[in-house]
Write a structure and sequence with these properties.
Largest sheet: 8 strands, parallel, barrel
CATH topology of the largest domain: TIM Barrel
Distance between the termini: 33 Å
Shape: globular
Helix content: 25-40%
Strand content: 5-15%
Radius of gyration: 23 Å
Length: 447
Amino acid sequence: MSRPRKEIHLAAHFPGVNNTTVWSDPAAGSHIEFDSFRHFARTAERARFDFLFLAEGLRLREQGGEIYDLDVMGRPDTFTVLAALSAVTDRLGLAGTINSTFNEPFEVARQFATLDHLSGGRAAWNVVTSWDAFTGENFRRGGFLAEADRYRRAERFLRAAWTLFDSWRGDEILADKASGRFLTAPGPGAFTHRDDHFDIAGHFPVPRSPQGRPVIFQAGDSNEGREFAAATADAIFSRHGTLEAGKAFYADVKGRLARYGRTPESLKVLPAATFVLGDTDEDARERAAVVRRQQVSGQTAIKLLEQVWNRDLSGYDPDGPLPEEDPRVGTDHIARGRASVRMTRDPLAVARQWRELAAEKNLSIRELMIEVGARQTFVGSPRTVADAIDELVQADASDGFILVPHLTPGGLDVFADTVVPLLQERGAFRTEYSGTTLREHLGLPTS
């Protein structure tokens, strides 16, 4: 007997500042004006997406002592933007990244509980850690934590926040109606939480929201990150968008749930995905090639190469060959505030691989950076893309996708108008919201 068709979960990531975004395109708009956020959110809600997602950067990245070129657009405060969007949307979930390394549980819990009430139960928290002392310089505590300690603090932070969310259970009496007097301690919102990171007690001022607790997202791909998600998260982001890699990640993370008394349905796996659409597959491939060149200008190509070579390469021609000198290995990196995976691995091995690829295909620096950094997950006609998304979800390579368009704010429109109807026709995606909270959209129980 074949199993029922899985319902696809779709979300939209407001791209902000990264090397997916083509901010130089004439069709691109502001990354900070509210009209851009509003347009993007309303498109996602019109398409019946589960949620909109905002990333967060706590410090502008630097390279060679200067602000990195993709950060000049600015990074507005997550809570402020999501609260404003709650007033111009009705059903769309509102997910924000908030750091657990340089914040405190009471403040973050109060902000998320407030957002959850303002939105009628549509808030979500992407719990992240911060790895570098460069970011820590913005904060009084400063410094940084080793990876295991970061996740330990994040786990303690989240459990402290849960204590605060759960301190209002909905069955307390706020006042004695007969006497007209309010109850005294312990009363509503009373909490105590003590562990090796936090020692807090008091009264939490915000009652429980329609969905109980905000939905919890987690983005770690390391073993510690996957374990943290299995123990605590409602959804996990993933870098693995291909069939085989996606299935392996999906099986690994879902296989960890049982030891925490959880079922596979209690955690959604949602990779990020970019897309380029065309009237035909060939048209889409041609457009994708143009987009890739827009994403990687000559200047950007040099910056990306510097992140591996760990040297100032500004004197090199992006249309010329790779440097003959090897990457500089060491802990003093040319890029600051950017958790570059390539720089934390073996840069000499990466350089060898890139030299071999460049020689094989006769690639310049810019062409190589385009080749190794191609960021289009789905390229094709709307039907081709709809088929690919459905195939990956039904094959348990994911439960859906978080779409990252390359244009802000209108890049999501064509997907909403062409791909979504095709997914709806085959019964793989909702035609209307059946619930009001984000937990209902994701098929999660009220916590």
